[in-house]
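Please describe the entry underneath.
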Amino acid sequence: MFKHLKNDLPASIVVFFVALPLCLGIAVASDAPPFAGLIAGIIGGIVVGLISGSDVGVSGPAAGLAAIVLAAIASLGYEAFLVAVVLGGAIQIVFGILKFGIIGYYFPSSVIKGMLTGIGIIIILKQIPHFFGIDKDPEGNFVLFGKGSNVFMDIIGIPQNLGVGSTIIAFIAIGILILWSNVLVKKHSIFTLIQGPLVAVVAGIIFYVFTKETGMNIAESHLVQVPVPDSVDSFLGQFTFPDFSVIGSSEVWVTAFTIALVASLETLLCVEATDKLDPQKRVTPTNRELFAQGSGNILSGLIGGIPITQVIVRSSANIQSGNKTKASAIVHGFFLLISVLLIPTVLNMIPLSVLAAVLFIVGYKLAKPQTFKAMWSAGWKQFVPFIATVLIIVFKDLLWGIGIGLAIGIMVTLYHSFKNSHFLHKEGEDIDDGKVKMTLAEEVTFFNKATILRELDNLPENSRLELDVTKTRFLDYDVIEILEDFSEKAQNRNINIKLISERGTVENPESFIDFFKLRLKTD
């Protein structure tokens, strides 16, 4: 696992700088103590990373659970909520044992790509206020639209509320990142070992220190805010423990199942997405991943952390930084732990606008314009579920986007099935004894009733129908009834029917129902 440290160590540094503000921000958005987000990030990196079979996935607190956690804490209280987190983790382990990990594979590729693109757009939109130093509540705002302040209102207000210092260092940081990735890494191997995001962060700290007493100073509200304990007792005092006296509460169990279901679904979709992004195209064992996530959530809940999932932002940053094994996820967890213990005051000098520049690059790579072009070129059956998923994720939320994208994907599949239940070939239409050949598909269900019935009703009188079921392996009883009814109509319209199967040819069968029952018994 550690033989690729020259690749994994730089990647872990990038993931650390991406994960740190997100851990704090998601905790604040969930109305949980900021330290709870750091606990979840540390456990997601070290514990889940060690147990997981994914080489590219990175786990930690996720924004998709923020609304659920917020409501649960308000309803149950924090200690009772932690009980639900522990129980949710245990339920996830049961999911893994029951092999529920396969669920993620039932989501169409167009929906997965839409999820990645939608998340990329949200990352970019949410970082614009940080980039320009205007958001008064930079880490607590996860709503694009809504009452009061939101991302779009902040963006509109940029000219009036521009933070000069934040903006200057943000442009310097993004210049460093682009120069590093497009030019310097090609010049010398040292630029691969020392990552651009690390240099950008160091530049941000230096800028903050030297401009504190000038007109370009950066306000503390626009810096990373890590809790700074003043003693061992104050550090230990940040941990909260669950109150298991409420374990019999139905509300606690409902919350636990909700956390387990949503966290598992987010994780499985992230696994599907990151496996597609992985340059080596490795396949993550999904049931083992559920076991790993469940173990992480049990431990997180026991010591006061919020729920954990595999997270696409951190995972994609990990992949884009050139990681090779899961060592990068594990090391990033240790970086979080060490930084919280040893250098919280240094971390609190990092401008959020610098981290916004790092996330800009991550978001752009997820939502490249080429992706839209490729999905458009793939045809409407791919583009419609894709664009619907993107738009609903951006304007509503992640789970709504995935759910509606999946529903549209299913409808597209049903429409495709409706259109392709049979192949119709007509011969001799200009003569009285014209022959019509209908070949049924391998599987024909009740969804295909309408199109088959329409074709049969449109057959001209005095024609000859060859019905080929040689390749048909499943024929719904509803369709057999349609054929049965048509055989009676055919006599009145003088239509001759020849039924062709792998067992021979039957002229004008007396009963389609009896024929297919006999065929089924013979098979």
Observations:
- The first strand starts at residue 59 and ends at 60.
- The mean pLDDT is 83.
- The chain has 23 helices and nine strands.
- The beta strands are 59-60, 309-310, 422-427, 435-440, 443-444, 464-468, 474-475, 496-501, 504-507.
